[in-house]
Every structure is written in structure tokens, then in C-alpha cells.
Design goal:
The chain is α/β, with parallel strands linked by helices and 448 residues long. The protein contains 12 helices and 23 strands. The chain has helices at 31-43, 57-70, 101-112, 135-143, 183-196, 211-222, 253-265, 286-292, 325-339, 358-368, 404-416, 435-441, and strands spanning 4-5, 11-16, 23-24, 47-51, 79-81, 93-98, 121-125, 164-166, 174-178, 198-204, 226-230, 233-237, 247-248, 269-273, 296-299, 303-307, 315-317, 343-346, 372-376, 379-384, 396-399, 420-423, 445-447.
């Protein structure tokens, strides 16, 4: 499926109500798992066999950066041979990060603590990553002796951003991080310690999106490394060794959540084969959250399923799964439209620091389409639905702001409520390049 391109060069897609999204759907493999598996394979001894690596921009960023370190042919045959880290005595290397915050934080930690024998490494961001920061990680790495160049300022609060040039040092056995702003900061330190052969990291403060740290622990365990945590002290033991079995990357739960919600709000039923009850992805809780709004949902050894139109308001805490906030905001808005009941989403304190300011962006979109919405530092409340909506209104043009999750949000509003013309629709390539084709193929009413 192709999308139209405006004179400004930005692609657009129009999503209209009237279609029922139903049937089995196949989102790409988890980009969060894929990036972690690729990094573990690079750091581990022996060849790792990976299947189902998704072709999306974030994963391509991690794969490209690792190939800059390991060689351009790394993993081309499906075998990702590790054991070459740390690279000794290499000249200055430049790594492209794309727009991937996961790639940026995990690689910055591993490279900065990757050993004094190698040369400096320059990290090049693209797009919105230029404006994103990771102060707690910067403070932790500098305390460990790393030289992070001019993008780190040891002020109050400290700042770490990209582009960045790093002079690697040997990883000390004990690390500390205070008040992390992202779970990826903690995950990066765990990977650095695993590459070292073990150690501890003390986390002072609350870890945002903590299920993603559990995902990291699960990946490391597959590679022979144990992570134990007691009262904020993470102990890493064991050496990274490539597993004997082929690792198949399961469907992306964040992407699946959009499809499952599309089924519910359009009056259809969607199944996601392969996203099973054994999943390590916290975003599989979308089934529980859809049920809170009166939808049907289930997950078992075969996959996940959801259907049934949202019929009641709900109050849910998304502190562990903030990527679900755009999806659940739409579900709450449709529940309010149908039942008149308000909904509250809590635990949204990290949203403003994403690819776009998502908390205020969600509120802006819903208000523009007629909902009454309030927000606070970490919450959003859908208080009342539009009362003057009439079918047949022309599609409302709304800019995705280059944020794939905002584009997903707009598609759901178009499916369920009023036609939406999504400007910058190609930003879904960050995580789900075939999203528009898959949505149309399942029954959504899409015009190009």
C-alpha cells in the first residue's frame, strides 16, 4: 500500500469510520526484544541464531550501529557471532542511532564502560532523538570514570544528550544510578556489567516502566547471565554465552495493542497469534486494561484476542506500560462517547519526554475532536464526550508530530469516531512499517 505525499513531502493517510477490523493480525516482532537480543548476541561468546528480527527503523538503527563495530556483514546469514568486544586499539568510530532511545541508552552505557583499549566513539542521533536527554545515565557513567565529552554537563540537574563522543573506560564492579528517567538507563548498565562478567548496580529511586528491566533480565538469562535484585541492588553474575537454540522474537505487544484496540472500538474481534501468556512483554497487560473498559479479551498459549466495544469508563495505572497510554486514551474516549462515563489514566509521568510531548499531545488531539480532557503531571482524565458530532463530516487533518504512537492514536480515532487525515503517516516506520496495509487488510476504511 502506498500513501499520498503532499507538496511539503510529508505522507498522509485518511482513516474513516465504518469498517470493522477483524481476524488474525500479524504485527512485527518486538523491537524492544530485538534490540536487546542483538546487543546480547554482539557481546556474547559464540554464534547466536535469531529469527523474526523485525524490519523497522529502531531495530535497523541498533543493527547498523553494531555492524559499524563488528563489520558490515555481521549477522547477514542469520548467525550473529559475538566475542569481539571490547574492540582493542580501534580508531575513532561513528555510530548512527537513528531516533531510537533504546539504542542510544543501551549502547552509550556499554561503549562508555567498554574498556580503555579502544578508541573514542561518536554517537550520531537523528530526528527527535537530538532533543531527548538521559541525565541519570550521564551522571552514573561519569561517576564510573567515563568521559562523555561536551554533551554532558555536571550541573544540577546533570544533562546527557546526543550527539555525543565517548572515551571508553574499564567498567568498575559497582555502579550507581539515581532517579532514573527511563528504564533503558538501568538496562544499559545491566548490559555493561554483563559484558564485564558481573558486578552490581544500585538504583536509588523509582524505575519508570520497570517491566522493561524485567525484559532485559529475561534476555540476559537466555544468554547465561543471572540478575538478582534486592531493595534496589541489582547483582549480575555469569558470562554472556550464545544459547544453543534459535531465538524467535515474539510479536510486538505495543503494536499488537493498537490492533486489538482497533478490533474492539470498530465492533470487530482481533487475534494476535504467537503473542502468548509466556510473553515477557509488560504491554501484554493491554488485555487486562481492555477488559477494564468492558471489552472482551483473553491470552493463552496460542495468542491474544480482544473484541467487544468499550462500554464503561475505567481508572487504570500505566506506570509500567506508558507506551499503552495513547491506545488506552482512545479506548477511554470511545467508552465515554458510548456510556457517558469518564476515565482516568495514571502513571504517565514519562510521556512528555518521548518522541513528542505525548501527554499534552494526546490531550490536544482529543480536545480538537470534541472531548473534554484534563491533564496533570502524570495523569489524563477524559471527562466528557462530544455532543455535536454528525456523520459525514469531512476528515479532520491532524499532524502526527513525527511520533509513531500518535499516528496510531489518530488511526484509532478515525476507525471509531470521525474521519481523520493523518499528516506524517510514514512515521509508523519507526516500529511498524506495514501498519497501514495491515489495518486496511483487516477491514479498516482507509483512503490514500
Amino acid at each position: 500500500m502506498e500513501t499520498t505525499t503532499s507538496e511539503s513531502g510529508r505522507t498522509g493517510v485518511t482513516v474513516l469510520p465504518g469498517g470493522s477490523v477483524s481476524g488474525p493480525m500479524y504485527p512485527p516482532g518486538s523491537k524492544s526484544l530485538a534490540q536487546r537480543y542483538l546487543l546480547a548476541a554482539f557481546l556474547a561468546e559464540g554464534p547466536t541464531r535469531l529469527a523474526g528480527v523485525p524490519e523497522c527503523l529502531d531495530v535497523e538503527a541498533m543493527l547498523g550501529a553494531l555492524r559499524s563495530l563488528a563489520g558490515s556483514g555481521w549477522g547477514q546469514d542469520g548467525n550473529f557471532v559475538g566475542g569481539a568486544w571490547p574492540l582493542q586499539g580501534s580508531p575513532k568510530t561513528s555510530l548512527s542511532l537513528g531516533e531510537s532511545g533504546t539504542c542510544a541508552r543501551l549502547l552509550t552505557a556499554c561503549v562508555a564502560l567498554g574498556g580503555q583499549g579502544r578508541g573514542s566513539v561518536h554517537f550520531r542521533p537523528e530526528g527527535t532523538l537530538v532533543s531527548r536527554t538521559s541525565p541519570a545515565l550521564g551522571e552514573s557513567l561519569v561517576a564510573a570514570g567515563a568521559n562523555l565529552g561536551t554533551r554532558f554537563k555536571a550541573e544540577a540537574p546533570p544533562v546527557l544528550g546526543w550527539p555525543l563522543t565517548v572515551e571508553p573506560v574499564d567498567c568498575p564492579p559497582c555502579l550507581t544510578i539515581r532517579d532514573p528517567s527511563s528504564s533503558q538507563e538501568v538496562s544499559g548498565l545491566l548490559f555493561a556489567l554483563a559484558a564485564r562478567g558481573g558486578g552490581t548496580v544500585a538504583v536509588e529511586g523509582v524505575i519508570p516502566s520497570e517491566p522493561y528491566v524485567r525484559m532485559t533480565e529475561s534476555v540476559l538469562e537466555e544468554f547465561g547471565v543471572q540478575v538478582d535484585e534486592v531493595d534496589g541492588l541489582f547483582t549480575v553474575t555469569g558470562a554472556l554465552m550464545a544459547p544453543a537454540h534459535t531465538i524467535t522474537i515474539e510479536p510486538d505487544a505495543s503494536a499488537a495493542a493498537v490492533l486489538l484496540a482497533a478490533g474492539c472500538i470498530s465492533g470487530g474481534t482481533v487475534r494476535i497469534p504467537g503473542l502468548t501468556s509466556d510473553s515477557v512483554q509488560g504491554d501484554l497487560r493491554v488485555i487486562e486494561y481492555l477488559q477494564a473498559f468492558g471489552c472482551r479479551g483473553a491470552v493463552d498459549a496460542e495468542g491474544a484476542m480482544a473484541g467487544g466495544v468499550p462500554s464503561r469508563g475505567a481508572k487504570i495505572d500505566l506506570s509500567g506500560e506508558p507506551d499503552l497510554a495513547p491506545v488506552m486514551a482512545v479506548v477511554g474516549a470511545i467508552a465515554c462517547l458510548r456510556s457517558g462515563e469518564p476515565s482516568v489514566l495514571e502513571g504517565l509521568g514519562t510521556l512528555e519526554g518521548k518522541e513528542s510531548p505525548r501527554l499534552s499531545g494526546l490531550a490536544e488531539v482529543l480536545r480538537r475532536l470534541g472531548w473534554q480532557v484534563r491533564t496533570g503531571p502524570d495523569w489524563l482524565s477524559v471527562d466528557a464526550a462530544p455532543t455535536d458530532f454528525h456523520g459525514g463530516a469531512p476528515p479532520v487533518p491532524i499532524d502526527s508530530k513525527g511520533d509513531h504512537r500518535i499516528a496510531f492514536t489518530l488511526s484509532l480515532l478515525g476507525v471509531a469516531h470521525v474521519g481523520v487525515r493523518i499528516v506524517g503517516a510514514d512515521c509508523v516506520g519507526k516500529s511498524y512499517p506495514n501498519f497501514w496495509a495491515d489495518l486496511a487488510g483487516a477491514g479498516a476504511n482507509i483512503e490514500l
